Amino acid sequence: MSDLFPLWTHRLPRQLLVGGLLLATSVTAGVWYYFTPKYTRAGYQPLQPVPFSHATHVGQLGMDCRYCHDGVERSAFANLPASATCMNCHNQVLKDDPRLAPVRDNVLTGRPLAWVRVHRLPDYVYFNHAVHARRGVSCDRCHGPIQNTDETAVAEPLSMSFCLDCHRNPAPNLRPAAEVFNVNWRPTSAAQQLADGQRFVREWDVKRLDNCAACHR
Ligand code: HEC
Ligand code: HEC
Ligand code: HEC
Ligand code: HEC
Ligand code: HEC
Asked: 57-91 pLDDT, tens per residue?
């Protein structure tokens, strides 16, 4: 025997609650927030042409994100590293290893090395890395604990509601600007982080960016 109620009714009370709460803040924003999918592409983990591991390079070797993603602090795009960057070490380390053949070929013969893009927002959404990095939003807030992963996956939904949850209440999500790239940073306590975050919001004049044009321009 099949279910007595159509599937959508199971979600009703929660949706009413969320809808009601949002109504109190902003009608239009609330409606969109409530309709947009919450779990966009989270978990997507494509196979890469070279088995590059953030666990090895960041987790074990302690490399800084900016060594390879050198745009992240100054431009909208974080950038992927050129193969020459890899060869700074791999012309010595694992020098003849077959796993690194596509990297060597790219440098020596110019044969393309195409990393498969993991994260991609729809074209109608504007995003900017530098703005977040300069306002104390750490990489792991959106990309998860990448220093523990061998194969890069989408860790957070990166849906509109995910973005808005923070844009409406940034304080608990901010850390000291100098710690944005530090994968080992932990707040001394949640209360301390909130107090610091509130101070950063004042000192850096962090806006509550939930107007549609901030992200849809
Ligand atoms: C030694 C170079 C290197 C370092 C250091 C490094 N990465 Fe990467 N990163 C890569 C390469 C190569 C890729 C493409 C392959 C992949 O997706 O795993 C990548 C992919 C990514 C992606 C997915 C990009 C996409 O396609 O959407 C994210 C996010 C990312 N890195 C974040 C970080 C963060 C955060 C740090 C610092 C904690 C970091 N990386 C440190 C080399 C590096
Ligand atoms: C700062 C030096 C350094 C840089 C730069 C570097 N690597 Fe590595 N890489 C290492 C070391 C050290 C190891 C571990 C070697 C071992 O296992 O003996 C390693 C291991 C690897 C492995 C073997 C799998 C693993 O995780 O152990 C691959 C594949 C690899 N690196 C790819 C890359 C690629 C692609 C880049 C450029 C995006 C890169 N590396 C940049 C130092 C580096
Ligand atoms: C507020 C969320 C957020 C934060 C914080 C963030 N990223 Fe991203 N990242 C994204 C989104 C969204 C994309 C996909 C962008 C697109 O499709 O245009 C992305 C894409 C990337 C890519 C793929 C190349 C590119 O630029 O599109 C890399 C590499 C990356 N991020 C690294 C980092 C690193 C390193 C940090 C920390 C300094 C970081 N990100 C912080 C949300 C974030
Ligand atoms: C963890 C917190 C957090 C998350 C998650 C987050 N943001 Fe932000 N975002 C911020 C902060 C803080 C600012 C800076 C506000 C200011 O400058 O006053 C900002 C600024 C921006 C800006 C303004 C850029 C400019 O040119 O001034 C855009 C666009 C933006 N975010 C897009 C996004 C998108 C799209 C997502 C989701 C994929 C997202 N953000 C997720 C915290 C966040
Ligand atoms: C902080 C950034 C941000 C703000 C502010 C924002 N959006 Fe979005 N919006 C997004 C992102 C990210 C997506 C893409 C979600 C996805 O990939 O499914 C999106 C998707 C959408 C979609 C497509 C929904 C779907 O189901 O595919 C609509 C419509 C939309 N937004 C309308 C709005 C309106 C109206 C406002 C103002 C009330 C607004 N957005 C404010 C980030 C934002």
From this structure: 999 999 999 999 999 999 999 999 999 999 999 99
Give me ligand 3 centre to Cα 51, in Å.
20
* Token pair of 165 as six digits: 């949850």
Does the pLDDT at position 143 exceed 70?
yes
Task: Please compute, for residue 178, the number of CA atoms within 13 A of its CA located in the half-sphere on the CB side.
Answer: 0
Separation of 27 CA from ligand 1 center, angstroms?
38
Q: Is the CB of 67 under 6 A from ligand 4?
A: no
Cα distance between residue 73 and residue 65, in whole Å = 10
Contacts of 122 (CB under 8 A, 6+ apart): none
**Predicted pLDDT at 41:** 74
Place of tokens 């709460």: 21
Share of the chain above pLDDT 90, in %: 76
The pLDDT score that the predictor gives to residue 93 is 96
Which residue type sits at 30? G
87 ligand 2 Cβ < 6 A? no
**Over residues 103-116, mean pLDDT:** 95
| Pair 138, 185: CB distance under 8 Å | yes
Minimum-distance ligand 1 atom for the alpha carbon of 119: 27
Residue 127 exposed, middle or buried by CB count within 10 Å (0-12, 13-18, 19+):
middle
Q: Which residue has the tokens 């949850």?
A: 165
